[in-house]
Amino acid sequence: MRRRQFIVLVGAAAVWPWLATAQQPTAPVIGFMSGRSPDDSKHLLAAFRQGLGEAGFAEGQNVTIEYRWALGQQARLPALAADLVNRPVTIIAALGGDASATAAKLATSTIPIVFGIGADPVEAGLVDSVGRPGRNATGYTLLTRGLEPKRLGLLRDLLPNAAMIAVLYNPTSRPAAAQLEALEKAAQIISQRLSIFPVSNDTELGASLASIQQQRVSALLLAGDPYFDTRRDRIIMFAAQNKLPAIFQFREYAVAGGLMSYGPSITDSYRQAGNYVGQILKGAKPADLPVLQPTKFELVFNLKTAKALGLAIPPGLISFADEVIE
Length: 326
Known about the structure:
Layout: H1 3-22, E1 29-34, H2 42-54, E2 64-69, H3 77-86, E3 91-95, H4 98-107, E4 113-117, E5 137-141, H5 148-158, E6 164-169, H6 176-189, E7 193-198, H7 202-215, E8 219-222, H8 226-230, H9 232-241, E9 246-248, H10 251-255, E10 260-263, H11 266-281, E11 298-302, H12 303-309, H13 315-318, E12 323-325
Parallel strand pairs: 1-2, 1-3, 3-4, 4-5, 6-7, 6-8, 8-9, 9-10, 11-12
Antiparallel strand pairs: 10-11
């Protein structure tokens, strides 16, 4: 072989691996932002990844996920959304509450968004309609507004002579006004006295729990909000220590020791969100994917907690349960 030919071949061999690497497609990046915390969301992340897998994507293989957590502090969310937009990411999964979705929507009108909220997405300005979102965002709603009266009714079915029921709600969340209005109307109909406590941070939570303890209320209703999800164990422990029957929004509360819960499966909602993210990564447009709504609501009782509280749950109420934790 001539010397000139040898140099050319060696040069080509040296350049080829770089060319091959440069031509490899870059894996899409999912920006995952949440008002919750990673500690209380492990099972939800597993469900989200399951939904991604159903669409053909696996973290670390053909997709990368950038995580941002607000840890129950909604004021952090706009900065987290801006950080993901500047990254930039291919798509944003804005889960863990309405404030997360709103922050993502305000941060970008071009990057696709899959949200998870409790309010009406049309009223929140996220979509044009539930059936045809028409913009860069779609996702699911848990219909939080309509569930608080149902939870109040279940609590009264359990405690028909309850003199006062304490309510914790987060006034800074978008569904808060509607939640409170629906609760107060329902309470008026059944002549139930409520003691309302606005809670949006740990200082207010501590003060509210101390007031509830002093008032000696009959029961506790926790309005649905991501902040409370991040303080779930503290609230459940308070209810147990004060022998206070309580109702919560998700099954996870009953599993963790809460007396009862009523609401949609948030785990399934996260799976659906992961699937939507995968569909969009494969070419679907958020504008064409209808906003998902729960079709089933779970009533769960923890009988061990009921026994500790000295409560006998009526057989008629138990018969409606979707799950009974022994």
